[in-house]
Design goal:
Blueprint: E1 3-7, E2 10-12, E3 18-25, E4 33-39, E5 46-51, E6 57-59, E7 67-72, E8 77-82, E9 91-99, E10 104-107, E11 111-115
Amino acid sequence: QVQLVESGGGLVQPGGSLRLSCAGSGIIFNIYAMAWHRQAPGKQRELVALITSGSGTKYADSVKGRFTISRDNAKKTVYLQMNSLKPEDTAVYYCNANWALGNDDYWGQGTQVTVSS
């Protein structure tokens, strides 16, 4: 059974930092591209950051220079370090695992991030 379990969300003041983690199980983690998406109330889900199986990265323009995605294949975990957080970063953040060759796509349950004073 495939599971992606996110953790690390919470309430933080503007300018603060959080680190999200997503632990995977039931998949050959190192062959999957891993990504973080987010969905704010009333908005569509959007890609925040992606890291390929070869550790190439891609970021949404809105988070470039503030967020960093990384992975630890030995721990089957992907991270999202979020710095200089803004109120507009408030959303539910979802972890995604994708293996295009196998047409596999999995999602975590989401973790709430709220940026507010």
